[in-house]
Amino acid sequence: MSIASNLPQIEKVVTQDQVGLYADASGDHNPIHLDAGFAAGTSFGRTIAHGMLVLAFISEMMTRAFGRHWLNGGGIKVRFKAPVYPGDKVITFGTLKDVKPHNEMQLVTYTVGCRTGYDTGVIVGEAWVTLPLIRE
Amino acid sequence: MDIAALTAGQTLPRVSFTLDRDTVESYRQAVEDSSPVYAEEPGLVPPMAPAALVIRELLRALSLPPGTIHSGQELIFSSSLPVGAQVICDTTISQNGIRGGWRLLSVEFSISQEDGPVCVAGRSTLLIPEE
What we know:
Low-confidence stretches of chain B: none
Order of helices and strands of chain B: EHHHEEEE
Helix content of chain B: 10-25%
Largest sheet of chain A: 5 strands, antiparallel
Number of strands of chain A: 5
Radius of gyration of chain B: 16 Å
Number of helices of chain B: 3
Order of helices and strands of chain A: EHHHHHEEEE
Low-confidence stretches of chain A: none
Oligomer: heterodimer
Distance between the termini of chain A: 12 Å
Structural class of chain B: alpha+beta
């Protein structure tokens, strides 16, 4: 398996309908995600997407790139820096940061995150995956 | 539950839930993940799904107030889980304090199948509005 310097991006437009579906699927019905009236009274001014919904886009990026290696040996550490509002286009990114030997395998680390179409970094962090060594 | 009274190291009651087909499919449709691996192996659970359901259990157990914000997340996926798996989740408070007018609460969790190794571990950091 080759190690890409930049992972293929995932682009999603988040909708309020999708936020509602995620609320039902995850059981997280915090009104900050669903109730426009409640959200208007917060610092966000309107409803925001679940952080875990947007983080799932990064996981999809890693799954598409590394398949089962991500599911069986991946890891991620992120901060949610800014809200994603319904209507925002979210674009994931993954940039190679480090490759080092690890238990006869190789530990590959990417700087990962999401930005919106306004180039605002909404999630920033690192993701790592353990891959077989490429033998010449 | 009185969130202010939670202390670092305190464990919450163990919870159990099932990654049944409907739950997993609802999750996959909600996040719109059409990664080929799930078509190749329909019995695989997206690794974020159990973590998302842990958040649900935390919301229930802690009665977190409306307006709670997710500020950070760490996850380690040690092994994939199959659709239909009955999992158990152990949760520990790792940090609880006031910062900038918000309560910062960090919770560590581990998810495993009964008598099995940990499949997913993580730490969720939440910002809770102070009254």
